[in-house]
Design goal:
The chain is mainly alpha-helical. Helix content is about 50%, strand content about 0%.
Length: about 70
């Protein structure tokens, strides 16, 4: 799986297992300032923290279920 488009250049060659512990700023489009705001608001420091954030999970569930709603 090629996810390079989602990562800053410095992280493109890292294994997925390492990316889980990478800072959220490793994601393309997430600045150091954005990362600091995520840390202050939700104590999110890593990509793994972001993925496990309950608000992210809730949002994903709402979007997935909305596709099935009549």
């Amino acid at each position: 799986m090629n996810i390079n488009f989602a990562l800053d250049k410095a992280y493109e060659t890292k294994p997925l297992k390492e990316l889980v512990d990478a800072p959220v700023a490793a994601l393309q489009g997430v600045s150091e300032g954005d990362a600091e705001l995520l840390k202050k608001a939700f104590n999110v420091k890593t990509i793994g923290d972001l993925a496990k954030l309950k608000y992210v999970k809730w949002a994903q569930a709402i979007v997935a279920l909305a596709d099935t709603e009549e």
